[in-house]
Amino acid sequence: MAYAMAIARPGGRDQFHKIEIEVPKPGPGEITLRHTAIGLNFIDVYFRTGLYPWPVESDLITGGEAAGVIEAVGDGVDLQVGQRVAYTQPNGAYASHRVIAAKNVVPIPDDISDEVAAAVMLKGLTVHYLIHHSYPVKSGDTVLFHAAAGGVGSIAGQWLKAKGVRAIGTAGGPEKCARALEHGYDAVIDYRTEDFGAEVKRLTDGAGVAAVYDSVGADTVMTSLDVLKRFGTLVCFGQSSGPADQFKIGDLARNSLFLTRPTLFQHTDQPGWLRNSAAELFEMIGKGDIKIDVPQTFSLEDVAAAHEALEGRKTVGSTVLTP
Q: Where is the Enoyl reductase (ER) domain (predicted)?
């Protein structure tokens, strides 16, 4: 039986309910995909709670990344039935099957598992645009990356190290700090017991950092501004602690700072960006420069428990749901 975990209306984790779906048939330029692994991300929480606008009136199927096997192809598609592919899209992944435009998927290399592909598409491509476009790092830079032990942060630490960048991370608790150090960070600050602003200043001899990559929001944004050096860049790409609405444009004047609020899907809309960036990401994984671990796996039907763990900051690295 094909099924999905849907949400009737914006709200808590109790909104998830199982619905039966027909295995969809692809139209021109589309494929039918049977999911084998589905990634879990904070953007799923944002859609579930209504923080991000709902694209439907009811029974929203969330989920932003997945891997699977092609079961049918429409006219004009150059992919094959039985081929393994992965994708990242704003919604629709919390299902056993779906139809998706062929242009929005990428083939999975033979040396990459479905689980890793599902865990890395949204998070890995997010890191790609953050460090290549939002603030393009260069060897010798020092940057600060919040939530360094999470899925995005774990990939970022490794990729930054491979580029010769000194990365300082923040994480909550000794175990998460140790994990971040194992994933490429030069130093990690425990935000539960240390003042990360003072620590960054100490670690940089008062100079500050070239960029801060901040997905936390309300709890961190003002101190993130304080630790930037002159002409530094604040990259806000999430708000796990709530919207950073205490920030004012005039705050940038304190050091002639730059601010950007990028989103992944505006990058994937650019012709050729998805395939090229995914190929670079898979190459980094294939070479061993980036190692992906998935410490948590939940059944898709237990997605509410997965959201509870994510929101409670009880997860590390990547989490995958299996239909």
A: 11-321
DSSP 182-237: HTT-SEEEETTTS-HHHHHHHHTTT--EEEEEE-S-TTTHHHHHHTEEEEEEEEE-
Pairwise CA distance, residues 171 & 186, whole Å: 13
Rounded-to-integer distance, Cα 284 and Cα 103, Å: 22
pLDDT of 192 reads 93
Residues with Cβ within 8 Å of residue 205, at least 6 apart in sequence:
none
Write out the residue limits of the CATH 3.40.50.720 domain(s) in the chain. Answer: 139-261
Pick out the chain residues at pLDDT < 70: none
Q: Boundaries of CATH 3.90.180.10 in the chain?
A: 3-121+265-322
Beta bridge partners, 260, equal 235
How many CA atoms are closer than 13 Å to the CA of 42, on its beta-carbon side?
A: 23
Residues 85/50, Cβ–Cβ less than 8 Å: no
Question: What is the DSSP code string of 285-310?
Answer: HHHTSS-----EEEEGGGHHHHHHHH
Pairing of strands 16-20, 84-88: unpaired
pLDDT in tens, 119-140: 999 999 999 999 999 999 999 9
Q: What does R_g of the chain's alpha carbons equal in angstroms?
A: 20
Is 3-121+265-322 assigned to CATH 3.90.180.10?
yes
DSSP states along 141-169: -EEEESSTTBHHHHHHHHHHHHTT-EEEE
Task: Name residue 171's beta-bridge partners.
Answer: 190
How many whole angstroms separate alpha carbon 29 and alpha carbon 38?
Answer: 23
**Torsional sign, CA 192, 193, 197, 202:** negative
Class of domain 139-261: alpha beta
